[in-house]
UniProtKB/TrEMBL annotation:
GO terms for molecular function: zinc ion binding. Keywords: Coiled coil, Metal-binding, Zinc, Zinc-finger. Residues 285-315 form a coiled coil. It comes from the Eukaryota. InterPro entries: E3_ubiq-ligase_TRIM/RNF (IPR051051), TRIM8/14/16/25/29/45/65_CC (IPR058030), Znf-RING_euk (IPR027370), Znf_B-box (IPR000315), Znf_RING (IPR001841), Znf_RING/FYVE/PHD (IPR013083), Znf_RING_CS (IPR017907). SUPFAM superfamilies: B-box zinc-binding domain (SSF57845), RING/U-box (SSF57850). PROSITE patterns: ZF_BBOX, ZF_RING_1, ZF_RING_2. Residues 198-238 form the B box-type domain. This is Tripartite motif-containing protein 47. It comes from Liparis tanakae (Tanaka's snailfish). Residues 77-117 form the RING-type domain.
Amino acid sequence: MGNGRVRLSRPLSQQRKVCLHLNATQHRQSLGTHTLLVAQQSSRWKTPSSMHADATPKSDRYAHARAKAPMSEPPQCCICLGEFSSPALLPCGHCFCLGCIGEYWRIQAACQCPLCKASFPTRPQLIAVQTQHAGAPSEEASAPFKAGEVPCDLCPAKRRAVKSCLACLASYCAAHLEPHYRREDLGRHLLISVGKNLEDSVCRLHGKRLNKFCRSDRTCICAVCAQTEHRGHHIISVNREATKKKVKLKCTRMKVQQDIQERLSKVEKLKLSVGLSEKNPKEERAQNKELIGKLEEEISELERRSAELERLELTEDDLHFLQTCSGLS
């Protein structure tokens, strides 16, 4: 210590040890917050110079990223709190989904690690990490897409898309989305949650996103439409209109369920009457059976409508919801 140099063997506090040695498999246990909260809390973690991009030899910076050790359980990204999608390793040693860290840097307008606050003067070349845990299927052999999921338009293996671009009218996986975070021209494109039929999300007159609803004309419009063709009309946001309509839709579905129960009760009474009316004339029994048949047909139609209303009510995409149920009263 007499020569003014910092001894590397100096004991570290427990907090500093966690900061230095936290890796992809420990994120799930140590973090439970969203992107911005992670960035705020991490401000109290001091970053030693050895963790900055300019303090680590380039040849050794990614050495630990090349090791491929199977994991007993899937690691999680501390930004999205889900399993890694195209994981990328930063020079400081922390790992994030490629799409997550790209979006974080775009919002923050600075290349900085959300965890340790290590700053990078220039955008680092991210290195892919092998995170497949023991017994996990490969990405190409993954389970079929769930409802609402769409494949990447550029992937030969058709990986799951994480974002859709309204300018490109295409959906991309995390790896193919990276150019939208890296290139200035693509960075101006509007990225939205993954959706099908992207052309239906864009105004055909102005090429802008349909994010408003004109209650006067009962149609979805863009911001330019609101200032031109629909100027002076009763206009609200798509989200607000969808919320209002979903409340009304729920009431309609409850009324349909009530109608179903009333008809089921009538059918039970008629069946009981038919069973106990052996002494009644044949004509009366035939009429009861015919009435039962009509009621059962009505019940089937009401159940079909109830299922359709429930499906619409659970639609997460507000724009698609409004476009689908635009014909409902």
